[in-house]
Amino acid sequence: VQLQASGGGSVQPGGSLRLSCVASGRTDLINALGWYRRTPENLRVLVASMSNAGSTNYADSAKGRFTIASDNAKTTLYLHMTSLKPEDTAMYFCGDPPADLWGQGTVVTVSS
For 4-36, what is each residue's pLDDT tens digit? Predict the structure, then answer.
């Protein structure tokens, strides 16, 4: 499975971004694809995830501001990020941790 993430960038507080993650190859191996961000302690923590059945899960910090979605073919995963805050600054990864599947990261920087 290959996961290709994109969409990061620099925005001012209150701004919006949309991250995209394109999955290719053995996508049948994916159970629940999600977005994770890397912490200063070099841990990847959940931002939002979506199961193959479409159920979603959000970190408390993402609820009400971020929306995870996929296309009909379930080959592209999106993260719509609104009302961005400086503390959202991080490298974001798409991945399926139980399957040890990870894409490369995309950097989000929120600053004035």
Answer: 999 999 999 999 999 999 999 988 888 899 999
> 40-48 — which CB contacts under 8 Å span 24+ positions?
44/93, 44/95, 44/97, 47/79, 47/92, 48/79
93: three-class secondary structure by DSSP? strand
Distance of alpha carbon 52 from alpha carbon 60, whole angstroms: 22
List CB contacts of 105: < 8 A, sequence separation 6 or more: 5, 8, 38, 91, 92, 93
> Nearest Cα to 39, choosing from 97, 109, 89, 100?
89
Tokens of 44: 């990847």
| pLDDT tens, position by position, 80-105 | 999 999 999 999 999 999 999 999 99
